[in-house]
Structures are given as C-alpha cells and as structure tokens.
Records
---
Amino acid sequence: MGITKSEHFTDHQNELANVLKALGHPARVAIVEYLIQHKQCICGDIVNELPLSQATISQHLRELKQVGIIQGNIEGNSICYCLNPQVFEQITKFMGIVIESVTKNKCC
Amino acid sequence: MGITKSEHFTDHQNELANVLKALGHPARVAIVEYLIQHKQCICGDIVNELPLSQATISQHLRELKQVGIIQGNIEGNSICYCLNPQVFEQITKFMGIVIESVTKNKCC
DNA sequence: AAATTATATCGTAATATTGCAATATAGATT
DNA sequence: AATCTATATTGCAATATTACGATATAATTT
C-alpha cells in the first residue's frame, strides 16, 4: 500500500513520528547541522553546501519547515531560515523518557 | 527517483538519519511506547495492541531492530524484544547540541 | 522596465515504503 | 511425529518519497 494508517494512532504518536521522519534523511540532518554551525542560512547556502539541485534543497527546506523544525523569515530577496528550539525539546523529552525507562529495566 | 544519495553524506549523517527514519512512523513510535511501559514484548503483544496485521508488525519490529533501537532475544518459542538504550543516547546527544546551539542564537 | 538574483512550484521518472494474505520456519506440546 | 504456537518471509498492490529540469514568482539592481 504505502499509506500509513494515521487514524489508528494518537495525535502525539503521529506528530512525533512526523517530526522524526522529517529528520530521517541525511540531507535534512546536514541542513540542521549547517544551521547549528552557522545559526542561519538561505536556500542558496545549502545549494552550495550539498550536491543536490536547488529544487531538491527547496523541497527539503519545506519539509523541515512544515513540521516546525526550522522557521523562515523573508529578508528582502531571500528567505532566512533558522532552527526552532521547541521541536527539539519535544524530541529530547521523549528520548529522556525512553532512556529513563530503559536504564531502570534490564533486557529480557 | 526515490533514491537517497547516501554517498554524498557523512557516515554520521546517514546513521543518524536511518535511526530517526526508523522512529518516523506512528506504529513504531507506538511500539517504543509499549516497550517503555511494559519493558519487553513479543510480536504477538503488539499484534494485540495495534490494528495492524501480524506480517506488518513483524516488519516494523525488523526495522527497529535493524537500526539497533530494539534487540530481540530468542526465548523458547517466541522472541523477546526490548529497548536498546545506546541508540537513544546518541539521539539525545544530537538533540542536546541542537538545543544548546539554538538557545544561544536568536533567529534571523 | 529590463535584467538579475533567490526561491518556490510543477511535472515526471525512479525508487522506497506500507500493508496484508499466503506461506515458510522453528520451537513446544501432545 | 503430528499438531500447535509464534514469528518471519515472500509476493504483490497502493501510495509516498526523492530528485531534478523547467518554469513561475517576487524582490533587487541596473
């Protein structure tokens, strides 16, 4: 099929999965890492950095933006993108719960 | 195309992306959450929990196992799965770096 | 206003993912 | 050893993702 049965899962599960899926591509990890180092970017910066076409980079930026990982502000001619901390706090919170749970219990 | 150009990215970027992609599906988030609560599971437990077929659940478990999110130990007839903390520490480390970076710099 | 610069969108091809029925495998029980 | 129980694998259809050339849009500069 290829269609995820989102309706069977909780909002929380769907939202978290969407954010993690958006981060689940090396180009998008690379974009986030670029933003960690350079604080901000325009689309052209990433086009120069990664061996992907402008159209593809624009698409990856849109995906990151759609789930709130980055935000874009119009700045004259171009659009300035930067990281949105809230989403990462959500992810870290989830990971923290997992780690806490796991360290308490030995595996079978 | 549909093919990710992994060869253009670093091992670290590919590995992290693979783990996050594996977590990027609500059914697999649900499986992890089940493991947080119940410490361990066999395939049949998840089949009873989620409205997906046994074949589909088995496939999701395999994906989680492939990237090291869970580990499975043969226990007689069935296979006992549980969470592997190392992978989550890796993710949390990455998220921590992002959050530290972002809180230091205002967005454009 | 024409040209330039920067980004987004459209259309399309190739590949990947999701999901399930059917079947295979393997240990446990009778 | 035949049956049962638990899980994995195979094959397939439907849908999603990835990537890019071509083109559209919109602000900037000449």
Note: The mean pLDDT of chain B is 93.
---
Amino acid sequence: MLGVVRIFQPVHGYDVRRELLSWHLDGWMNTKTGSVYSALKILEKDRLITGTALAGEPGRPERTEYVVTAEGEKEFQKLLRTSWWQVKRPAEPLVPALSLMLFMSRGELKSALGARLKQLAAQRDELAFIRASIEDGATGADGDVPEHVREVIDFGDSRIKGELEWTRSFLKRLNEGTYSFADERNMDGHPRPPDTIDARRKSL
Amino acid sequence: MLGVVRIFQPVHGYDVRRELLSWHLDGWMNTKTGSVYSALKILEKDRLITGTALAGEPGRPERTEYVVTAEGEKEFQKLLRTSWWQVKRPAEPLVPALSLMLFMSRGELKSALGARLKQLAAQRDELAFIRASIEDGATGADGDVPEHVREVIDFGDSRIKGELEWTRSFLKRLNEGTYSFADERNMDGHPRPPDTIDARRKSL
DNA sequence: CGAATTATAGGCAAATTTGACTATCGACGT
DNA sequence: ACGTCGATAGTCAAATTTGCCTATAATTCG
C-alpha cells in the first residue's frame, strides 16, 4: 500500500510490515509478508516511489529505503479520495456458506450460530482491549499508535455488531422452523413442525 | 466454489457463472469470469469433481460438464462446516483509507461521508428490491431463486446498517472538531476549535 | 559461556486471479 | 438477405499473491 510508505517514508519493507501490525490493520487487510516486497517493487516500477540501497552499517548491507515521488504523491491523493468517495462492498466469507445452508442440519446450524455469537463477542472484547491501549491525544510522532486508529477499531466493531444482530435474528427464525433442511425433507416438501412435537413422537 | 457444483450438478462453467449471478452472490464474492474455469480445473485435478466433454449437439462441441465425486462430497461437507463454525474477518476496503484519513481535509472528509451515507442507503434500497423479487416458499426446484437466499440479503443488510451507524457517529465526531487534520496543523499541534469560531474569524 | 529463540531483512517458485480476448448461434430489425 | 447485438462457452498470457525459505544480529536463559 502506497499510503503506508507515504506516512513513514523513508521506509524499507520490514518497516511497512511492522507498522501494519502495530496499527492492527492486519486483521482487516489481507497483507501477507511476501506481498509487501512485491508491492514495493511494483510501485517502484511504476515510478511512484524510488528506492535507495543502503549499505552503511556493519553487517546489514541488504536494505532498500523507499520514498514517494511527486507522481506518487499525486496518485496517492487520487487513490485516497476515491476510496473515501466510493463505497466498495467487501467479500463476505460467510456468504458462500450461507447460500449452502440447506446442506447442513438444522441442529448443527443452530449450534454453529451459537458458537459464532461467542466468537463475535470475544472479538469485540479484543477490540475494546486494543482500543484502550491507544493513548489519548497520541499523534504517532513517537513510536505510538495515533489516536485516529480508534476509528478503525470502531468501524470494525460496528460491522461486528451488525453481524451479531443478524445472527440472533437468524437463530430465532431457525427456532421457529423456517426453511426445510436436507435432513427434514418429506413427501410434501414442507418443513417439519417444531421440536416439541418431534420430541413427543420420539417418546412413543 | 465446490458448493455451486454440488447444488447444480451436472454443470459446466457457464452455468456456474449464471447461477452465481442469479442468486446475486457476485456482490459479496469476488468471482470474475475467468476464475470460474480455473477453479473447476483445480477441483478436477484434486479429484473432487470429474468432467465429461460433451460434443453431442450441432455447433457446440466445446463444453465440459462436471459432477462431484465421493471424495468431493466429503470435502464439501468439511469446508461447509468449517465456514459455519469459524468466524473469519473479511478484508474491509475502507480500512486503508481510514488509516490515512488525516491526509484529507476535514471538509472533504465530511462531504465524502455524506456521499457514503447516500450510497449505503441506495444499496439498502436495492437489496430490498431484490429481496422482494424472491417468491415465498420458492425451493429453487424450477429456475427460481430459493427462499433462503433472503438470508444472504438480510446478512448483507445488517452489515450495511452497522456501517451506517458508524458513519453517522464518525461524522458527529468530525463536526465536534475531533482530530487534527493535515490542513489544520498549527504550532501547538492541537486541533482547531470547531467551526463556529472559524466562521467568526473568517468574517473579520 | 553457549544454545536457543526472537527480531531484522528480504527472496522466490508455485499457485491463483485478472481481464481481455475468441468463436458460434439465434434473434432482431431493415 | 445482411449486419448487429446479446447470449452462450470457454481460453490464455500477464499480473498478483501465497507460503515458505535464507541469513544475520540481538536477546534470553539455564
């Protein structure tokens, strides 16, 4: 990401990785270690940044520091502004599974949703913890995480709240017997009546 | 995606694309035309599906139909269940821009957020429209979209609601003068007082 | 001290995705 | 009868990403 270089320049690849981690952006972007270096190379090829090989210090000759060029600065502003002005839908990892939900059994699906509720709650706790570790008025001038990174946390938290709400309402619908699952299909194609009656039948 | 083949088998590549579109999954998954065919080839290589070349009909000899193997069925169940039991965080496209927000001006950011609110509202309207086009009790047996696809819509709608809430609260914070933007930095490094005072100063 | 682990720095082959392209058939208007 | 447009069906090179690998300094720990 061009922006990271823009903030921390001059930087080398390892710095970029480190800062992405320290701002806790790794959970919301898919940036693996390897892709940082190739991204930098591509940016350099496109003349948006320029790299200088640093040999200086004793045993560490292999290090390339990058700075943003004038062209890169222009491109950066353009990218930043379109990111803000244009809403882009993220790829939701649950959607494929959701489309295939009828291949599960109603019982397992309910259990899985319960597990998801717990995991989502745990994620929110973790976010709260990270948020609390950001100092009031931090500017990022020292090595610290600047205050506005809290917005990243809050943004994520809101999305999770949204998913929590949907999960609860979906669970309610499942309990009411909505939909006909793979293990419930009988002649007429209607869903089976809810659990109480099933249980009675079983006890016969 | 293995699952799509599982539902519609036997299918060929073009079918897969068509069904993904008809279920409106394209907005939440990143599946471009080309990737469908390579995905099918990989699944075939791994023996999860088997393809049969169909020449039959007049002018269209090039067509390969796929069915899921026994192994593929097992793998399918495994993938489906881990997708449900394990919450995975999506890559949020706004997060990079959010981290770089201080490189914007407060004014433009507020305008952009206003535009986002409108776009998000429009997306919800569109989702409502699609949702309404799904018939009650549809099973997907004919060419229609099965009823449970509504859950996909509702899931997405909840995420959007979450983003809407955050956007409004962020806008409020911006109006209160929180954070110090690139165009607002003065000696002491503190944010400027809120708009009212700015306006007064301007009128002098 | 010496060994093991962690932090620093980066490379690269293989897998995957992208996006633009080819080619045929049928329907439609003119 | 002809050109065009959209739907059908799929290919492929180039761009990108992934995972795992190398190597040295620094730090920890019994």
Note: The mean pLDDT of chain B is 87.
